[in-house]
Amino acid sequence: MLPEGRSIRTRTERSRYDARVDPPGLLAFDVNETLLSLAPLRSRMEEVFGEDPPVGEWFARMLHGSLVANHINRYRPFGAIGVEALLALAERRGVVVSEEHARELVDAMKALPPYPEVYGALERLFDAGLVMVALTNGSAEVANAQIENAGLHPFLRRVVSVEEVGRFKPDPVPYRHAAEVMGVDLREMMLVAAHDWDCAGAISVGARAVFVSRPGAVWSLPSPGPDLVVADIAELATELVG
Predict the structure, then answer these.
(1) Is residue 148 part of a domain?
(2) Segment (H or E) for 83
(3) Does residue 19 sit within a domain?
(4) Which end of the chain is more exposed for a tag (fewer CB within 10 A), N or C?
(5) How many domains does the chain have?
(6) Are residues 73 and 130 in the same domain?
(7) CA separation for the pair 82, 61 (Å, rounded)
(8) One digit per residue, pLDDT tens: the chain, 242 residues?
(9) pTM, to two decimals
């Protein structure tokens, strides 16, 4: 959902926002929490932290670490940041976790399942001729494993990992890189993400953006807002190809 005063651009308003909902030259999907659910990590983390495991806080700390890496110009793989974030959380909660166990938990992200509607929605978009990629803060190795294990590889042209440029989203560089390697103008690219900061990064370089308002995902940033807000990827497919 969006803050008061921010409009949600839906299919019923297609005539007003034609240029914004026309199918793009490139659809770039964020992966974690956009295409894939983090829910299975909860049970894995319960083994370490007990009830109410800090899955959300862990992911937030990973994002924080990536932003710091950008700011000080010291890129490190997202997985390494994830291990460090998990160890820090364990120390904070007084839980003993070995580095090896922390790595195993991070590796569990390779087997995250897609949200229920994702496969069918991507199939509709693919059949309509849209070119799609994954644009992820994860490494190419992890992201390719995720897409393969989730069964989404037939629909995505390739994985574009930030490790190719050494800068994490929402830095402008990864979005520009994705457009460049796919041979499209940034204005022809549409980012799809369940994170407002990711959408904001794409918008800042002139790309279009779709905010996926998964349960718990709230747009909390100032204008400009996303070009489109959808509840899930199935709604996005309906918006773009009917």
Answers:
(1) yes
(2) helix 78-93
(3) yes
(4) C
(5) 2
(6) no
(7) 8
(8) 443 433 444 433 333 234 347 899 999 999 999 999 999 988 888 888 888 888 889 989 999 999 999 999 999 999 999 999 999 999 998 999 899 989 998 999 999 999 999 999 999 999 999 999 999 999 999 999 999 999 999 999 999 999 999 999 999 999 999 999 999 999 999 999 999 999 999 999 999 999 999 998 999 998 899 999 999 999 999 999 98
(9) 0.89
